[in-house]
Every structure is written in structure tokens, then in C-alpha cells.
Amino acid sequence: MSKVPNAKIGFSKAMSNKWLKLDKSSPGPPQVYRNVESVTDTVRKLLCSLKGESGRGELSDENLKEFKKRKLISSIIIKNYIITQGPSFTTSISKKSTELTAEMIQNGSWKNEEFKSYNFNALGAPLATGHLHPLLKVRTEIRQIFLEME
After folding, report:
1. Cα(117)–Cα(91) distance, integer angstroms
2. Paired residues of 32 in beta bridges
3. pTM over 0.70
4. Region for residue 120 given its phi and psi (left: phi exceeds 0; alpha: psi -120 to 50; beta: otherwise)
């Protein structure tokens, strides 16, 4: 068995399917005997049926897990997207107005104008607080110089 590559895997699967019989009682090395007349390879049939079809076919969940574990199959997920024009589709980009000015009200152009929506939940820019006074910074620098002189 050591001379043939992957023989151990095939031998163990044949033993688990009871296609072979191992006789250790005979003198010398263990003898292997055929246990059935003809072998029906269900794994090959299932894999061939998968190859022909685009889906799972007659493959059960147990077989699927076993084949994935043995790395005989791998699952590939293919996603398709259909892109269509939405209700706001346009070929030109227009900038929305952010403020309503007195000129817009006088001209009446505010009726045709698109305004940007306001976000009232925004927190705004953070305030820069907690800084040292400039004179305190100078004092700490001078103190540091005197401490280094010692």
C-alpha cells in the first residue's frame, strides 16, 4: 500500500463500505480479500450527477458534508445584480441650495430650487477646550530647564 499514492484513503473507504475483508489470522502479513463480487461506486455516480447539473441534484446533506470534508467538492456562491434607473435618475448633476436668501424670495426662484435637507441630529464640530494658558506653558518650560541644570 505504501507504493501506491492515495492507497490508504481508498483502502479505508473500501473497508468502511465492506467491499474488502482483512484477515490478520494468517501467518505473515495481513491478507486482503474481496468481500463483494461487483462494486457500485456511489461517490462517483453522485459526483458525475453534480457535474452534469447546475444544482445539488440528489445529493443529501450528509453526502454534501462528507464530500466537502474530503475536499471532493467546493461550494461557490455566485450573485447577480440587476441595475435599473431609479426615480431620481438624471444625466446632469445639479447642486442643491443650502440657504434661502432674500434674493430668492424676491425673484421667486425658490419655487424651482431644490434645497438640501437639514440634519438636526448632528452634534456639530467639537469645541477645542482644556488647553493650558500660554503663560503656564512658559512657566513649565522654564521649570524644566532649571531642573535639568541640577
Report:
1. 22
2. 22
3. no
4. alpha
Cell numbers given for 150: 541640577
The number of angstroms, rounded, from the C-alpha of 83 to the middle of its chain's C-alpha atoms is: 22
Instruction: Report the candidate in 88, 110, 86, 87 with the shortest Cα–Cα distance to residue 97.
Output: 110
Q: What are the structural domain ranges in the chain?
A: 1-39, 40-75
Q: Contact at 8 Å (CB) between 68 and 76? A: no
For cell 482644556, the residue is: 130
Query: How many helices, marked H, and strands, marked E, lie in the chain?
Result: 5, 2
9 SS3 class: helix
Q: Do the Cβ atoms of 64 and 56 come closer than 8 Å?
A: yes
Please answer whether residues 8 and 23 qualify as being in contact, where contact means their C-beta atoms are separated by less than 8 angstroms: no
Give the phi and the psi of residue 19 in degrees, each rounded to 5.
-90, -25
Q: Along the 150 residues of the chain, how does pLDDT read in single tens digits?
A: 667 777 887 888 888 888 888 888 888 888 888 888 888 888 888 888 887 766 666 778 898 898 899 888 888 899 999 999 999 898 988 888 989 999 999 999 999 988 999 899 999 898 888 888 999 999 999 999 999 997
Indicate the fold that domain 1-39 takes in CATH: Arc Repressor Mutant, subunit A (1.10.10)
